[in-house]
DNA sequence: CTTGACCCTCCAGTGACTGGAAGCATTACC
DNA sequence: GGTAATGCTTCCAGTCACTGGAGGGTCAAG
């Protein structure tokens, strides 16, 4: 298989696949003409990585997970721990975004959004986010 | 004020403040010794940027917001629209993360996490995320 | 007078790609 | 058989928003 076929079948752009080879996630062979020659196994790995990436795992986690994928004697506990850590990070990010969202939504709701210059959003930013002190 | 004072009062690291000057967000003067000389106005701007960044606005949005901050004749509608766009982006990200989280939580729950190698997490990744077909 | 804290600039690296240029290889079509 | 369009190759640079570090000047205290 050439890179184009693998790209189509794995859903990853050729550029990304080359990048994954660069950083050592896969090692396709080479044809006589210098083209990368992918085997089914490479395709499986790429699909694996693609899936892991859509679940938000970092490349380094993907590397570890790939090793575990190939390791017949892996302990599922190791895999589970990586996933749990990642889950915790996701929860943190969600919490952060929700907090941002809440503040921002309040400000947006308070802004009349017309042609006049006064604007609670700008005022909040200008106060550095400290609560308003109308005294 | 030297950069250290401004860093402390704005909560931004000196490196970041220098970077903000580099990209033209602020323009502090210079003392005879070559040190940056910040005025109160610079500090206000930095606090403004810092706040906007914690709310997740990009640097380019900060630039625009700063312009609006300084513009006595701004229309609050313009500000509101930027904030609304940003809000929509945040909502998108939250949705994405929640979807990741849901899938990942299922997999984690299904993994017994002991010394045996069989693991629903690895299996999902290996299938590229396609639903299991036990037939 | 030296020590240490502070400041300066410039370069390089982060993560995970992505875009583009320059140049072979192959394939499709007439 | 020629030629034009793909497709493949490598390498360099850019993205975003910083961050780390080297190498060196400046300033206040003891």
From TrEMBL, chains A, B:
InterPro entries: CueR (IPR011789), DNA-bd_dom_put_sf (IPR009061), MerR-type_HTH_dom (IPR000551), MerR_fam (IPR047057), Tscrpt_reg_MerR_DNA-bd (IPR015358). PROSITE patterns: HTH_MERR_2. It comes from the Bacteria. It holds the Pfam family MerR-DNA-bind. Keywords: Coiled coil, Cytoplasm, DNA-binding, Transcription, Transcription regulation. CDD domains: HTH_CueR. One of its GO terms (cellular component) is cytoplasm. Residues 1-68 form the HTH merR-type domain. Its main location: cytoplasm. One of its GO terms (biological process) is positive regulation of DNA-templated transcription. SMART domains: HTH_MERR. Residues 80-110 form a coiled coil. It is found in: Cytoplasm. Gene3D superfamilies: 1.10.1660.10. PANTHER family: HEAVY METAL-DEPENDENT TRANSCRIPTIONAL REGULATOR HI_0293-RELATED (PTHR30204:SF94), REDOX-CYCLING DRUG-SENSING TRANSCRIPTIONAL ACTIVATOR SOXR (PTHR30204). This is Cu(I)-responsive transcriptional regulator.
